[in-house]
Amino acid sequence: MAAWCVGTAVQNNDGAQGMLLSKAPTALATLLNLSQTDPDTAVRRKAAYALSSAIRNYQPAMDELLRHLPENVKSEMGGSVDASDMDQVDKVVNWIRAATAAGATN
């Protein structure tokens, strides 16, 4: 439930996106971990939603998330992603969703 609240709060709200990073600097790493490892599928999906909302059109959050992605994923993305380029952002989000679907089986 908390991940869903975060996702809803930061979606299309750069002020809230900035507050998330400044007040909870480990939030994106925690959400990424939850999106891939939580045994509850609903929790994994809500964490992925929160990540997607946090990084869209907000470069500092995108940069922070990229720090926590596996090296092979960062290489596929070219090492950096423009948070305002929805095609690039969708590649990151699609990777997160695929990892979320695989979930706790990894």
Topology overview:
Blueprint: H1 2-10, H2 14-23, H3 27-37, H4 41-55, H5 59-68, H6 71-76, H7 86-102
Helix pairs in contact: 1-4, 3-4, 3-7, 4-7
Beta-strand content estimate: under 5%
What order do the helices and strands follow? HHHHHHH
Overall strand count? 0
* Class from helix and strand fractions: mainly alpha
Number of helices: 7
Radius of gyration: 12 Å
Average pLDDT value?
Answer: 94
Low-confidence parts: none
Largest sheet: none
Note the overall shape. Answer: globular
Protein name: Hsp70 nucleotide exchange factor FES1
GO molecular function, one term: adenyl-nucleotide exchange factor activity
GO cellular component, one term: endoplasmic reticulum
Q: How would you sum up this structure, described in words?
A:
- The chain is an all-alpha fold.
- It has one domain (2-12, 26-105).
- The chain has seven helices and no strands.
- It is globular, with a radius of gyration of 12 Å.
- The protein starts with a helix and ends with a helix.
- This is Hsp70 nucleotide exchange factor FES1.
- InterPro entries: ARM-like, ARM-type_fold, Hsp70_NEF-Inhibitors.
- GO terms for molecular function: adenyl-nucleotide exchange factor activity.
